[in-house]
Amino acid sequence: MWSERYSTQPEILRCLKHVADRFDLHRDIALETRVTEAHFDERTARWNVRTDCGDRVSAKFCIMATGCLSSTNTPRFPGLDAFAGRVFHTGQWPQEPVEFSGRRVGIIGTGSSAIQAIPIIAQQARHLFVFQRTPNYSVPAQNGPLDLEMQGRIKARYGELRRLGSQMPFGFDVKLNEKSALGVSDEERQAEYEQRWVQGGLPFLGAYADLLFSKEANETAAEFLRLKIREIVRDPEIVALLSPQDVVGCKRLCSDTGYFETFNRSNVTLIDVKSALIEAITPTGLRTVKQEYAFEDLILATGFDAMTGSLLRIDIRGVGDATLAERWAEGPCTYLGLSTVGFPNLFMITGPGSPSVLSNMVGSIEQHVEWIADCIAHLRAQGLSRIEATPEAQRDWVAHVNEVADSTLYPRCNSWYSGANVPGKPRVFMPYLGFPQYVEKCNQVAAAGYEGFRLG
Ligand code: NA7
Asked: Which residues lie closer than 8 Å to 118 by C-beta, 6 or more apart?
């Protein structure tokens, strides 16, 4: 039973443990184990995997289910190591509760993680300093308890809801308005945005069909969201700092509970670190080029080395001992986000070039797991032991992923979707836009005897 519209981490963990118990999965899972290397042995056509616990495993197939947002991004702030207080990263939060009562806290970043953390920490801390480089748009989460009757209604239609969701562009069953934002009256548009604001969450972006295609259409949504900030936040200087100027949804739209209201509190200070860059972390706080701030706890809400980080932190070597890091030096290249040239029998779950983070992750993960399982079963049934994407299929797929992305506003901003949040990371738009088309393509590839792959 889910107790809220947006479940908290402990509730999700309880659900995962329940599934692992119920299907007796624990015996096949090694927790607290980091894979350090995976090398393909051309002689045996097997993957040799090592872990930091000293395990050595040999397997015919290697499936990297390493997650799109699991390797944290920690900028190299000078002085960080010498900070005398506690340091937390939102992506590596401790399991035990963290108490901020009576403490001065600094938080760097104002992405989704910070936007969710800031209102809660502000209620506890003596003072909270928020160091913002770029403001973000946010809509209310409108979180709340899920009553039993509603849960019953949803569960009675599970199959149907999943089927409907799988036919939608992002794999979610949300109401998409097919009209253009520019083809309706101001009153109608305002009412549509208002209704979606009250409803809450990311379906706000479904208000009009052209929001992610036309800058002019997008600007109507941007102005609506900026007006909300002006209505909520009292100090006009803070309003100006909190008001984004980019395209809405180009960076992932955030969803919050009382985020903008938090800046009306007397114990919260917003600091613009775009106009006054962070110079260093000092032992007692942080120094910008303009001023010094003192606090006891530092929170890095600085995001993730998304989509490729977890893969590239493992020493993965394929044909000819070539490393994945070398192969992807100019950015990730895959066929369907499932496979990459030069790495036979290696599959990725929600890899770059698949819908992944721009889709319902659960649906996308399931689709990949099922496709890979079917593929392995097919190879076994045919007495085959090797599968590898062809360079031509990969080249065409990469071009197609870019072409689709370029028809939208997505590649226009500095988002983690294109690696722009990590200094030095190649700029490649990584997710594939269009869940139903993608699933159809994967099914066609399989039906045509794994077209675009060399089987052996
Ligand atoms: P995000 O969305 O990548 O946000 C990271 C934040 O940290 C963002 O505000 C960044 O500012 C800021 N940042 C990163 N590096 C620096 C430096 N060097 N100086 C100052 N500020 C910095 O990560 P989240 O964890 O919030 O969310 C990631 C996803 O998880 C989210 O989209 C959901 O899908 C779930 P910037 O915008 O780069 O100027």
From this structure: 107, 110, 128, 130, 259, 262, 268
| 254 and 123 co-located in one domain | yes
109 lines ligand 1 (CB under 6 A): yes
Judge if the beta carbon of residue 113 lies within 6 A of ligand 1.
yes
Distance 415 CA to ligand 1 centre (A): 9
- Same domain flag for 323 and 414: yes
Last residue of a domain, one of 257, 275, 300: 300
For 156-183, the DSSP string reads HTHHHHHHHHHTSTTSS------S-TTS
Answer yes or no: is the C-beta of 179 below 6 A from any ligand 1 atom. Answer: no
Q: Which of 88, 93, 133 to mutate to test the pocket of ligand 1 (most atoms within 8 A of CB)?
A: 133
> Of 252, 282, 300, which marks where a domain is finished?
300
* pLDDT per position as a tens digit, 94-136: 999 999 999 999 999 999 999 999 999 999 999 999 999 999 9
Q: What pTM was estimated for this model as a whole?
A: 0.96
**Same domain? 178 vs 206:** yes
